[in-house]
Write a structure and sequence with these properties.
Elements lengths: L2 E4 L5 H13 L4 E2 L1 H4 L6 H11 L2 E6 L7 H17 L4 E5 L15 E2 L4 H16 L3 E5 L3 E12 L2 E12 L5 E9 L2 H12 L3 H18 L7 E4 L1
Parallel strand pairs: 1-2, 1-3, 3-4, 4-5
Antiparallel strand pairs: 6-7, 7-8, 8-9, 9-10
């Protein structure tokens, strides 16, 4: 599913450049100036696009926060977040402005001083919301691709994390695999979360604890890696 870009038409130059860069990085994009044609119903087409989008990038500027049309698109995205219980709205700040109340608790991609950094943060956010089990983090010198698989092994909850690191100036990559197997108590807790439809909370907590552990120990003590 594409990513919907919501913006004020006073910021159309920025929105077009952002859309072009996202497509260059193989993201699917829906932006009105490319998708709408003479005779189209604006309300119907935009409503369908928002409902069918994997995420909404909302470009925050002085112009957009005062646009009634932008407010309607933002409200639709936030409503989807409440209904689907997942991240849908991805804020992108392009200039100092009063951030809408319902977005103040969200992290945003900051394009005010560094377009490339804002783009990298946006791409990372898109990878998280379009597929919770796959993602990519890019820096100029290196790229990290990761995946998370989960299920039950011998009736115990199990989660496997795979990370591939590739330095731009090296002829090899580093593959790391981490397998977490829950005990009976943790498995029972996960099943309760699963029944309530909030099992993602438990998986997120496990990844968070692993991140804390990795800071306290050398990677070799908790991971199994190989070079290929």
């Amino acid at each position: 599913m594409p990513v919907f870009i919501s913006y004020s038409h006073q910021d159309s130059d920025f929105a077009t450049e952002l859309a072009a860069q996202l497509i260059k990085h193989k993201a699917k994009v829906w932006i009105d100036q490319w998708e709408l044609h003479v005779g189209d119903s604006l309300i119907d087409r935009i409503h369908e696009a928002i409902q069918g989008a994997s995420a909404l990038i909302v470009i925050l500027s002085k112009a957009s926060i005062n646009s009634e049309w932008f407010k309607k698109e933002l409200s639709s995205g936030l409503l989807r977040e409440l209904e689907e219980k997942r991240v849908v709205v991805l804020p992108a700040l392009i200039e100092d402005c009063e951030i809408p109340l319902f977005l103040r608790g969200k992290m945003y991609a900051d394009f005010r001083t560094d377009f490339d950094k804002g783009l990298r943060d946006t791409l990372e956010a898109i990878s998280r919301v379009t597929s919770e089990g796959l993602g990519r983090y890019e820096e100029p010198e290196w790229t990290i691709d990761w995946s998370i698989d989960h299920g039950y092994l011998d009736n115990m909850f199990s989660m496997r994390i795979t990370v591939v690191e590739q330095a731009q100036d090296q002829p090899y990559c580093v593959l790391t695999e981490i397998t977490i197997t829950a005990n009976e108590q943790a498995t029972a807790r996960y099943r309760r979360f699963e029944e309530e439809g909030i099992d993602w909370i438990e998986r997120t907590a496990m990844v968070h604890e692993l991140a804390i552990l990795s800071k306290k120990n050398r990677p070799s003590s908790i991971t199994r890696g190989r070079v290929s």
